[in-house]
Design goal:
heterodimer; A: 282 residues; mainly alpha; MetI-like fold; 11 helices; flat; B: 271 residues; alpha/beta; six-stranded mixed beta sheet; four-stranded antiparallel beta sheet; 10 strands
């Protein structure tokens, strides 16, 4: 802790460890390189069978191959489009049902007393277990996948909306009362905007869940989506293909998640969770 | 029960003026009459006067204010503002809270015209922008119209809340510990500002507070309350010249009022 300060001065400097001084970009790239190096090492020395773990090179080659298929509009792009439709439709249904139920539960005594206990009960069930039911009811087409995706994504939105509707403080409620605001005005001009941070937390969880729902339903119920491609590749022990398909699938999930985040930043620019980005615009 | 105990006996400013807000025998009980929050009280606010209610926590002063704001119905008694009974929230009642309660997704001016937007719609709210700018200037917030409220300091936010209270041109201002969340320096300053604003608009106001010196400083008349059940145990007319200054707060007369109210509150606490 000593320093080269002039004699007589006591200079006390904060010690920052070496690992905390690495710039973010270097740290991220460095970690990736290290993991790939370890992966190559494990492969080269035959520690794990190549069927279980292909080499980084093989995987990279397959990633490029899938990219070419996707860009040329091949069968993989059609599969990706089907999965995209399932995810988007599932998310839209989840939002419609989630907001409605969330407002019912968060805004009415009936919802809180009668509906909420059932929602909690269903929420504690493993929702993936409902997949066979959806397949039996809706068939092996896109509908059953949308249903499971929406089913999984609905609950975080309900919880987020209901919690958001309780996020305001007593003063805000009193203020709206003294202004003679109607129930709808109070809901749309105060409760919902105040609750937006909670609602977006729910939407972000839902955006992740809706992907899991669509892919799970495809694994179990076939169809023509990306999940089916993964299942087939895995059953044929084409492990590099599985890896590259998962990578592109994650891009879909990532895009959906970021659309939600961007909308959040636009709408909830005033909240502390998003304030650091917008502070520069002020 | 209400005994005017002003030491000089002279009516304070505005005493002879027209009564604007009258409460007669107003009481409130909760839980099918089991919990008596407020014993029957009489309160009269005369035009252009500043009154305050002081009392310990749980003495029913918030209940009294909610009744006066038309948010909570009284169990008994008459509540009359400007000749018509108060049966619900009214635009001629302006209210302000301990927290500024500005909405961070609205700019300062959008927050201020919110009461107009709620009552008359968006078009009327836009038309009220000119009015809002005028009031902003009155409270010293000129130039902050388009600033989002999360960027305002505590004192500035309370100034904006004053503007929002004034935008509907209310007959009476109800102030629920408006500056108690501010630090003491800003608080004294805001009290001076409040006096200036009330005097410039000859506003009729009722302040609820925990602070004896704040009550004495701002008021023409102080209502002292005791708790369990809440009742007004004394009304004290503060006969100090206006405008009041912070120098007056160390004058003997000011100290005598503070002492008198303190001893009443102490007595009330041990009843």
């Amino acid at each position: 802790m000593s320093s080269t300060a002039p004699e007589g001065d006591t200079v006390w400097t904060e010690h920052v460890s070496l690992i905390d001084r690495i710039p973010r970009s270097v740290a991220m790239v460095g970690l990736l390189v290290a993991v790939v190096a370890l992966w190559q090492f494990v492969h080269s020395f035959g520690i794990v069978s190549p069927i279980i773990l292909p080499s980084p090179g093989e995987t990279w080659a397959d990633i490029q191959l899938v990219a070419r298929n996707l860009l040329s509009g091949g069968y993989m792009l059609k599969a990706l489009w089907i999965t995209t439709q399932e995810v988007l439709l599932g998310f839209l249904f989840a939002m419609a049902i989630g907001f409605s139920l969330g407002i019912l539960v968060g805004e009415t005594a009936f919802g809180e007393r009668a509906v909420l206990p059932y929602l909690v009960a269903i929420d504690t069930m493993p929702k993936v277990a409902f997949a066979p039911l959806f397949l039996a009811w809706l068939g092996f087409g896109i509908a059953s996948k949308v249903a499971l995706a929406a089913f999984i994504a609905t609950f975080p939105i309900v919880v987020g909306t209901a919690a958001g509707l309780h996020a305001h403080d007593e003063n805000a409620r009193m203020l709206f009362k003294t202004m003679g605001a109607s129930r709808w005005q109070t809901l749309f001009k105060m409760k919902l905007p105040t609750g937006l941070p909670h609602i977006f937390t729910g939407l972000k969880i839902a955006a992740v869940g809706v992907m899991a729902g669509a892919i799970t339903a495809e694994f179990l119920g076939g169809g023509k989506g990306f999940g089916e491609l993964i299942r087939v590749a895995a059953s044929q022990l084409q492990t590099p293909r599985v890896f590259s398909l998962i990578l592109y699938l994650s891009l879909l999930g990532f895009t959906l998640f970021w659309v939600v985040v961007l909308v959040e930043r636009r709408l909830v620019f005033w909240h502390r969770s998003t304030i650091s980005e917008t502070a520069g615009l002020a | 029960m209400a005994s005017p105990t002003g030491p000089t006996g002279t009516p304070p400013t505005g005493r002879d003026a027209r009564p604007v807000y009258e409460l007669r025998g107003v009481s409130k009980t909760y839980g099918q009459g089991r919990i008596e929050a407020l014993k029957p009280v009489d309160v009269t606010l005369t035009e252009g006067s500043f009154s305050s209610v002081i009392g310990p926590s749980g003495c029913g002063k918030s209940t009294l204010l909610k009744i006066m704001a038309g948010v909570v119905p009284p169990t008994s008694g008459r509540v009359v503002l400007d000749g018509t009974p108060v049966t619900g929230p009214r635009r001629d009642i302006g209210m302000m809270f301990q927290q500024a309660t500005l909405f961070p997704w609205r700019t300062t001016i959008e927050n201020i015209v919110l009461p107009i937007e709620i009552r008359d719609g968006r078009a009327a709210a836009r038309a009220a922008h000119a009015d809002a700018r005028e009031i902003l200037e009155l409270v010293g917030l000129k130039g902050f119209e388009t600033v989002y409220s999360h960027q305002l300091s505590g004192g500035m936010a309370q100034r904006a809340a004053i503007c929002r209270m004034l935008i509907t041109r209310p007959q009476v201002l109800l102030l629920d510990e408006p500056f108690s969340a501010l630090d003491e320096i800003s608080r004294d300053f805001m009290n001076l500002e409040l006096q200036r604003i009330c005097m410039s608009r000859s506003a009729t106001a009722l302040l609820i507070t925990h602070s004896i010196s704040e009550a004495v400083f701002l008021s023409d008349r102080v209502h002292v309350m005791s708790s369990r059940p809440g009742s007004i145990i004394a009304e004290i007319d503060i006969d100090l010249p206006r405008p009041r200054t912070t120098d007056m707060m160390v004058s003997p007369a000011f100290g005598a009022y503070v002492q008198q109210i303190r001893s009443l509150l102490d007595k009330g606490a041990f009843q």
